Amino acid sequence: MHVPDGFLDLATSVSTAAVSVGAVGLCLRRARHEVELAGPAMPGLVSAFVFAVQMVNFPVGAGTSGHLMGGALAAALVGPATAVVCLTVVLLVQALLFADGGLTALGTNVLLMGVVTVVVGYGVMRLVAAVLPRRRWSVVAAGSAGALVSVPAAALVFVGLYAVGGSVPVPLGRLATAMLGWHALIGVGEAVITGAVLAAVVASRPDLVRLARTTRAALPDLVVVGADGVRRPVAARGGRAVGPDRPDDDRDGAQEGARPGRGALAVALLVSLAVAGGLSLLASASPDGLESVAGTLGFGTAAADSAVAAGPLADYAVAGLGGAAAPVLAGVAGVVATAVVGAAAFALAARRRAAR
Amino acid sequence: MTAPTDVLDDGARVVLPPRRTRPQDAGRAHGLLVPTGSPVHVLPAHTKLVALPALAACVVLVPAGAWWALGACAVLLLAVVALARLPPGRVARRMLVEVPFVVFALLLPLVATGPRVDVLGLELSRSGLVGGGTLLAKATLGVLAAVVLAATTTSRDLLAGLDRLRLPRTMVAILGFAVRYSVVLVQDSRRLGVARAVRGGGDGRLRHLRAVAAGAGTLFVRSYERGERVQRAMLVRGWTGAMPALESRPATGREWLAAGAAPALALVIALAARVGA
C-alpha cells in the first residue's frame, strides 16, 4: 500500500508532508513523557517489531496469506501517540533503506499508514470497547473492529488525496469503489490477524496491552504466590493495569475506567465529520457501486424507494439546497444525527448497567 | 549494522566516532550498503539526504507525456549510479520492491477516462496510457534514487545525517534502536517460523493462523521486554536521558555543490519540460 513517487502531484505531496510533520510532532509531544521515562529503546523495539511482523505471512484462508499493516495493532498495544511515532519510524526506515514507498511520497505514506490507520483504528477500538462487556475477549473484539475500519479509512483518505492531486484522470466514483472494496477485504484480513495477535498477547501479558487498560474488568486480579505457596489475590486498581506502574499519557482513560476519553471521542467525531462532509461531495458526483450496477442492469427503476425517501435528507442531499453544499451538509447532518442517537444509546446502556 | 547507541559512557556529551567500514565485512554487516568508495559514497550523508529526495521531486515535477525529459532524468540518475560504481545487477534486484505498483500502473489504461485508442484489439484510454507510463517512469526513477541513497550510505551515517538535518533527537534515537533491532527481530521471527514448521504448523491453512499469531504475539512480548532490559542496562551505565550526539562533519561548500549538481540539472530539465508542454 506504499504510495510511490509521482502518484500524487508535488503540491499534494508537500501538503500531506506538512500535515504529517504536525501530527507526528504532536504525537511525539504526547509520548514524550513516556519516552523520557521508558527511554527510546522501548518505542525503537516496538518499531522493529512492527517492521518484523509486517514480513510475516499470516494464513487467512483459501490458501492465501496476508500481511499485516500493523497500525491498529500497534495502537492497541502501545497507545495511539506511541503507535504513530513507531509507524513513522518504520516508514522512514522502509523509504530510506529499502526504497519502499517514494521519497517524495513519504509524507503521504506517513499520513495514510501512520496517522489515519492509528487514529481511526484507536477511535473505533475505544468506542467498541466502551459498549462491550468488561471481559478479556472484549479487548480482542475491539482491536479487531478497529483494524477492520482502519484499512478502508486509509483507502478513503487516499481517494480523497487522489481527487485533489491525482496525476491520471480516473473516474473517482469507480476509484473509490475499487479502493474501498479491495481494502475492505484487506481490512477483514487485518482484523483477523490483529485479533489473533492481540489474543496471544492478552493471554500471556495483558498488562502490556494499552487497550486493556481502558476496560477495567479485562484486567484480572493479580495473584501473588508467596514463597510458602500461599496465593493472595491483589485487586486491580480502577482502570489501571496490574503490574509495573507506567506513566500514562492517556490520562482520561486512566481516570474514567471503561469510558472512552473525550479526546478519542472528539477525534472520532471530527474524522467522521471530515469524511462525511468532504467525501460525500465525491460520492454524490457519481453513483455508488450498487446504484451503477442497478443502472446498467436496468433494475434501478424497479427498486422501491424507502420510507424516508421523501424526507429532507433523501439521497444524501438537503432538499432546497443545490450545488456542492447540499451533499456536504447532508453528510455532516448524518454524522451529527448518528452521534446523537449513539450517545443516547450509550447513556441508556450505562444507566441500565448502573441500575443492575 | 552499526548503531549509534552501543557505546554509552557518560551521558549527553559523548560523541560517537564513526565506525570504520571494512570492505570485507561491510556487505554483510551493513546489509544494504554497497561499499565502493566512490565520490558518491564519500559525500556527507545529509547532503545526499537533501539531494536525492530533491532529485525525486524534480522528476515528479515533469509533466505527463514529456518523454524526453523523463529520459533525460533517467540518464542523469544512471550517471549517478555509474559514478557510485554500483553493480547494475544488485541495483536491479533492489528495485523489485516496485513490482506491486507496476500492476496498478498497467491497469490504468483500462480504467482512466478520455478518448480511446485501439491497441492489440483492446480499447484503452489515451490519457490512461500516457499517465500510466509516466507514473511508471516516475516511480521507477524515485525507487532508483532511494536505492542510490541506501547503497551509498551506512545506516549510521544516515542517522547522523538526519540528526544534522534537525530531526528531533528523540526521533533519531528511536530510529537508531529500530534500525539496530529490526535485524534482530526479523531473525527472531524467522526462528519462530522454523520452530513452527518443524512442529508441523504453518503450511498456510487458516487453522494455523492461531499458531502464527501466537508467534507474533510472543515476538511482541519478547521485543517489549527486550526494550525494558536495554533501558535498564542503559540506566546502569549512567543514562541521563539524552542520546549522545552522532559525530558527523559539516559539508563543505564544494560538497554541497557536488551533491546539488544532479538535482539542479533535473530541475532545469523539469522546468524546460513544463514550459514546453
Task: Give a quick summary of the entry.
Chain B: This is Cobalt ECF transporter T component CbiQ. The complex is a heterodimer of chains A (356) and B (277). Chain A is mainly alpha-helical.
Describe this structure in words.
Chain A: Residues 236-258 are annotated as: Disordered. Chain A: It is found in: Cell membrane. Chain A: This is Energy-coupling factor ABC transporter permease. The complex is a heterodimer of chains A (356) and B (277). Chain A has 12 helices and 4 strands. Chain A has helices at residues 10-30, 32-38, 41-53, 71-78, 80-98, 106-131, 136-165, 172-204, 251-256, 262-285, 289-297, 325-355, and strands at residues 58-59, 65-66, 222-225, 231-234. In chain A, the strands form 2 sheets. Chain A has a two-stranded antiparallel ribbon with strand order 1-2. A two-stranded antiparallel sheet of chain A has the order 3-4. In chain A, a hairpin with a 5-residue loop joins strand 3 (222-225) and strand 4. The radius of gyration of chain A is 22 Å and the shape is globular. In chain B, strand 2 (116-119) and strand 3 form a beta hairpin.
